[in-house]
Design brief:
alpha/beta; Quinone Oxidoreductase, Chain A, domain 1; Rossmann fold; 8-stranded mixed sheet; 11 helices; globular; disordered C terminus
């Protein structure tokens, strides 16, 4: 089966398509065999491929992923697909179910085996594999930092730096769902798009510095890594929260000491991919609070081009999705065998 791998850190060109062995024939009682139709190229994927980490995280990043070369060659994390087979003890999923999730050991592969306890959930009805693959990283990150971290309240003023990207599109939608007054910062070409997502106000970053307008915000969310607490603090209310999605090690420390001293706080950390988190994401989709946003779609053979789009950072609209061969095969096939193992 085909997979996208890399043996070294580096530019997009280190990625290659390689044949890997099929998953073992017999599933363990708690395992699920998934046919992957689509995956997402996120900023996290770019960083792991290139070993480019936020300030202060180079050492822990290398220790986690592999010091001189990647410990795990298989790339990708977020996916959308369907269940082909399940182990005898699996109760939550059945063959034929459309699912989405996040695989800690890679997802850019035609077929994937994960335990039932992994971050896999049934897809919301009516969404394609491509659409659900756009949800795990962006929507979960937005939920973790806005709802759980900053605890955005109705009527609060929220500024979103990088409002049109893979995470920003969900930050805007979720902030509106939580009842905030939202200002989205993006390029001129994406201002109308950000308005469509629900932003009450939009700012063209090429013309206006959103942190120097005199406007005071309750929450400033920096999705793109283009600000700092020092720059944002004058634009924050007395009990304001600064949320650097791509936080540095310094931001983690600032998050600690700003909890102690009065004044604006820094909300930093990591959004973990868990089944419970993705079930919350699915509930938000089913409630109409958020919708998946797919900006660009690429075939598996175009993986290098997909990574280049993400690495450029600016000008994106939502997620960058890679469609695997199973997606095309499913369009042609009329019958695909499904089974329960054990």
């Amino acid at each position: 089966m085909k997979a996208i791998v890399r043996d070294v850190y580096g530019p997009p060109e280190v990625l290659e398509i390689r044949e890997l062995p099929e998953p073992k024939g017999d599933l363990a009682p708690d395992e699920v065999l998934i046919e992957v139709h689509a995956t997402s190229v996120t900023t996290a994927e770019w960083r792991m491929r290139a070993a480019v980490f936020p300030p202060g995280f180079s050492l822990p990043g290398r220790l986690a992923l592999g010091w001189s070369r990647p410990r795990e060659p298989l790339t990708g994390r977020d996916f959308g697909g369907r269940v082909l087979a399940v182990g005898s003890a699996v109760t939550r999923l059945s063959p034929g179910d459309a699912v989405f999730g996040a695989s800690p050991k890679g997802a850019n592969v035609e077929r994937l085996v994960l335990p039932e306890s992994a971050a896999i959930v049934a897809a919301p009805a009516g969404l394609s594999h491509v659409e659900v693959a756009a949800l795990p990283f962006g929507a979960n990150t937005a939920m973790h930092f806005l709802a759980d971290g900053a605890k955005v309240q109705p009527g609060e003023r929220v500024l979103v730096l990088g409002a049109s990207g893979g995470v920003g599109v969900y930050v805007v939608q979720l902030a509106k769902h939580l009842g905030a007054e939202v200002t989205g910062v993006a390029s001129a070409a994406n201002l109308d798009f950000v308005r469509e997502l629900g932003a009450d106000h939009v700012v063209d970053y090429a013309i206006t510095d959103p942190l120097a307008t005199g406007q005071i915000y309750d929450v400033i969310v920096d999705v793109a890594g283009i600000s700092s607490f020092a720059r944002a603090k004058p634009a924050l209310a007395a009990a304001g929260r600064y949320v650097p999605i791509e936080g540095s090690l310094g931001d983690l420390w600032r998050g600690v000491w700003t909890r102690i001293w009065p004044g604006p706080r820094v909300i930093s950390g990591v959004a973990m991919d868990t089944r419970e988190a993705l079930e919350r994401v699915r509930a938000l989709v089913e409630a109409g609070a958020i919708r998946p946003i797919v900006g660009r779609r690429f075939e598996m053979a175009e993986i290098v081009a997909a990574h280049r789009v993400v690495e450029r950072r600016r000008g994106r609209r939502g997620a960058v999705i890679v469609e695997l061969p199973a997606a095309e095969s499913a369009k042609r096939a009329s019958v695909v065998p499904l089974e329960r193992v054990g």
